[in-house]
Amino acid sequence: MVIELIGGVGAGKSRVLRILREEYGAAVIETDQTARELERKGQAGYQRLTEAFGEGILGADGELDREKLAEMIFSDQTVLERVNEMIHPLVWEEVYRRAEEFRGSGPQDSSLLPLLVVETALPEERKQTGNRKSADRLELWKDHERMESWELAGGRESSTDRKTPGDQKQPDVRKKPGDIYDEVWYVYTLEETRIRRLMESRGYSREKCLAVMGQQPAEEEYRALADRILDNNGDEEQLRRQIAEILAFFEKQE
Predict the structure, then answer these.
(1) CATH class of the region 1-26+115-162+181-254
(2) CA–CA separation, 181 vs 84, rounded Å?
(3) Residue 112: per-residue pLDDT
(4) Distance, CA of 116 to CA of 220 (rounded, Å)
(5) Between 3.30.1060.10, 3.40.50.300, 1.10.287.70, 3.40.190.10, what CATH number should domain 32-112 receive?
């Protein structure tokens, strides 16, 4: 079983990964770490970056100097867009390769449900590969919100919202052939809790927390992508119970 674990910075995905790794024997791919590996000297990402920005982004050891690259990004937002365009496709190609290897290798422990968890803050592979039409899921989520608003208004709708039956098109939210993920899990945590965690663990100011979080997908976008939502606002035991319930369901299906 291949799970994509998504959620914003400070949501607590590392806590979920630790439980899955230690208690369920899950293999884990962290996309941030995968990107770093691809940006090492001699790797494809390294080659793309140096071709685009020159050797001025390298340190004395010939490896990528992340502080220099960060300075370029800070001074010019288009640099970040270019870096993402170069690195993200490589990351997802590597993720897919490892996922296929995992599927073909068989379980290491027959007593456990074989799990591979791909952790990412930004589900950018939706744009890069089109392997799952997130726009369909997002539209379905928006339709749900519109219906709730309509019901709260006593069943009234404006002329601009009204559509004829012929205009209604039910979005196809089924997984598409070739989708490597069996499930997408979203780690949901309140904004204030995320801010507190980031201030405590990383030493961020409140302003920096909000700035970083503001660059990530909105709550509705994450929910639109998710098959399961893990509420990480409580203690670890509550989170552990949620994970156990989900995996117990899949073990019964085996």
Answers:
(1) alpha beta
(2) 22
(3) 66
(4) 25
(5) 3.40.50.300
